[in-house]
Amino acid sequence: MRLRLKFAWLLALALASGTAPALAHGVTVEHRRVNAVELEARFETGEPMANAQVLVYAPGNPTEVWQEGTTDDQGRFSFTPDTSQPGSWEVMVRQAGHGVLTTIPVADSTAGGEPTPTPATEVEAGSNSLISPSTTLSPVQRGITIGSVIWGFIGTALFFARGKR
Amino acid sequence: MHIPDGILPAQVCAAGYAITGVATWYSLRQINRRPDPAAEVPKASLLTAAFFVASSIYIPVPPASVHLILNGLLGVVLGYFAFPAILIGLFFQALVIGHGGLTTLGVNATMMGVPALLAYHIFQSRSVLGKMLPEPTRTGLFAFLGGALGLGIAALIFLALIILNIPAELNATAEQAAVLTLSVGHIPLALVEGTFTAMLVLFLRRVKPELLEG
């Protein structure tokens, strides 16, 4: 079964725009917004790849796992890449011997040490809808290709079945 | 059940290609010894087309979803033509449909082709092992066994390959559970393919018995 991965870039906004502390009984919660990557793994049948294992590798270190996790019931998984390591992040989704390794480009959004929202990040968000090149065939193109291959087999059969002269 | 690129280490892929090479050579040599090697090519070609399409037919077996393989059927009907037929079918599946991959072509061909040759020998042994049985039952039963065992052995090879090659960074328990679930889903599929093989063989026996002589 071949897999398709869909990526959606989330929240390319408002980095380090301020932290908001909330105090109650000695517990401190701070929040800030970060760039996260959400991915959705499906089997070729359209069925979500639920509870599949996900391994994330940082650029320049393809042997050490940077983060691991599992997809949810909808086959979704999200992680927050470290923007101080720009480049191609590799994500491996794997279940029961079916899997795919895909790369996600992460732009450098550090300027002067502090992460700031840059227009470049948003441009990239729009252009990053398809990763796997094998999914670029339209259903019609696929149908024609498969039909041609089948016709090749039938033609071979007819050629050898033409009888002896 | 095809193993895609990037799942198995390089040594296993190379070993798969080596076994495929030897099996192809042996099959072609057996074919070449026949009086007319080209006589069976039309049958082999049509069944290769069926094999190519079969992996796009999904059968939902909760909780997994499996697709037809038909390797046992090819073995029973084609004999030694089955191995080259499966190799060619897998090559086109990897290129066109995206099932499997080019680096794992050898492994996949071994996984499906060698059980197909076994299925052929199971079917051929019907005249020795099934002497007691009346004729249509005997052919049907051995065709069923060939079709079902061809797929069953392929599923066991798949299970072994995946379990022995789980990368260290993966959670091995979860992956083992997932691959076991998928393999269990192949038991009903083996019954379906065995029944289908028996039906096809009994049909051929009635309309064109010389096709089964090979």
In what range is the share of β-strand residues of chain A? 25-35%
What can be said about the biggest beta sheet of chain A? 4 strands, antiparallel
**Count of DSSP E strands of chain A?**
11
* Low-confidence runs of chain A: 7-18, 110-134
Question: First CA to last CA of chain B: what distance?
Answer: 29 Å
**Can you count the helices of chain A?**
2
Helix content of chain A: 10-25%
In the predicted model, the low-confidence regions of chain B spanning at least 5 consecutive residues are none
How large is the radius of gyration of chain A? 23 Å
The secondary structure category of chain B is mainly alpha
Structural class of chain A: alpha+beta
Overall geometry of chain B comes to globular
What are the secondary-structure elements of chain A, in order, as H or E?
EEEEEEEEEEEHH
Could you estimate the helical fraction of the residues of chain B in percent? Answer: over 70%
Order of helices and strands of chain B: HHEEHHHHHHH
Mean pLDDT of chain B: 86
First-to-last CA distance of chain A? 45 Å
How would you describe what is shown here?
The complex is a heterodimer of chains A (165) and B (214). Chain A is of the alpha+beta class. Helices cover 19% and strands 35% of the residues of chain A. Chain A has a four-stranded antiparallel β-sheet with strand order 6-5-8-9, with no helix packed on it. A three-stranded antiparallel β-sheet of chain A has the order 1-4-7, with no helix packed on it. Chain B has 214 residues and is mainly α. Helices cover 70% and strands 4% of the residues of chain B. Chains A and B meet through strand 8, strand 9 and helix 2 of A and helix 2, strand 2, helix 4, helix 7 and helix 8 of B.
